[in-house]
Amino acid sequence: xxxxxxxxxxxxxxxxxxxxxxxxxLLAACGxxxxxxxxxxxxxxxxxxxxxxxxxxxxxxxxxxxxAAKMVSEVRPQVTGIVQRRSFTEGSLVxxxxxxxxxxxxxxxxxxxxxxxxxxxxxxxxxxxxxxxxRYQELVKIKAVSQQDADDAFAARRQAQADVNSARAAxxxxxxxxxxxxxxxxxxxxxxxxxxxxxxLVTANxxxxxxxxxxxDPIYVDVTQSxxxxxxxxxxxxxxxxxxxGANGAKVELLLEDGSRYAQTGTLxxxxxxxxxxxxxxxLRAEFPNPKGELLPGMYVRAVIQxxxxxxxxxxxxxxxxxxxxGQPTAYVVTADNKIELRVLQTGxxxxxxxxxxxxxxxxxxxVIDGLQKVRPGQTVEVLPASAGPTPPKAAxxxxxxx
Length: 403
What we know:
Elements: H1 15-30, E1 46-51, E2 54-75, E3 81-86, E4 93-94, E5 99-103, H2 106-139, H3 147-179, E6 182-184, E7 189-191, E8 201-202, E9 211-226, H4 227-238, E10 243-244, E11 251-255, E12 266-271, E13 281-288, E14 300-317, E15 322-323, E16 329-334, E17 340-344, E18 346-351, E19 354-359, E20 366-370, E21 382-385
Helix pairs in contact: 2-3
């Protein structure tokens, strides 16, 4: 151990000096701000604003609906027989007139041969009747045969001609039935599953279809809109609040079941002329290209239809609008002297992430987007662009390191 220096003496510190030292320690621990700086409670809040602009906006409606094939044909046999073969692959594309099934044609080939023979027999009888009628016509002139015999020969010729016509019709019918043993696709499209296999017995005009062919390119989308919404749109157009959409107004966009947007744009084709009494809705039909077969009949979709154009419309972000205690939509606006003003708004429909505002805002207003929670009406604020946002607070200077 080091020896204590007997020459050093320890004098007690004055009480006033100890008090000053203790106060300095407490002030340092409390982190008192440097002199001259404003208290935190009196700092001017910063808000992010956007300048309201008026522009022409398309008025769109997002309506639910389902897809439907443009053409649907159920393939049924028109003759009775045994299916010999199926000539298509289920789910494949087929052309109009392409053979799908072959029914055993043996009995129908025999019927054609029989009808052909009957026609030839009738034609032979007709030839004999014509010759006889011709001879009797000459003989009656010289009184070699009676007029009655000549009339009977003439009638026999006409009857033979009728028998020939009947035989020809029977032959045509037999040939048609023979052709029906080749069951063909009535339209071009995609064929579904087959309900029969080779060896099955099918009957003419049976209730069960052999297969179904659907034309899927283009494809229809049937959507429903309430009749009240249609009336509201018509009144707004008549009052001049909205302008009828032009040629591009017939365009329709499609949102699929998974939320993705369909790549192709459709065209509005027609609106139903009557209202469904059960739902009070009107059916609208749009047509979409479907080259890749992405859309299948029966899919649930949402169609975005442009129905009109709002001139000098004001649309603001939804996050800038809050509801007061009465449920009214309100927004904060920064005045020319950088003070907060509360506005009560009238809003219409939503358009994506924006509200369409019909009253309460005008072009040139500075609308508060960021910092809504820190302001109140009449308060002075510092204005920043909404994209920049409030400036983060500066870090306090660090204390010197102890040695």
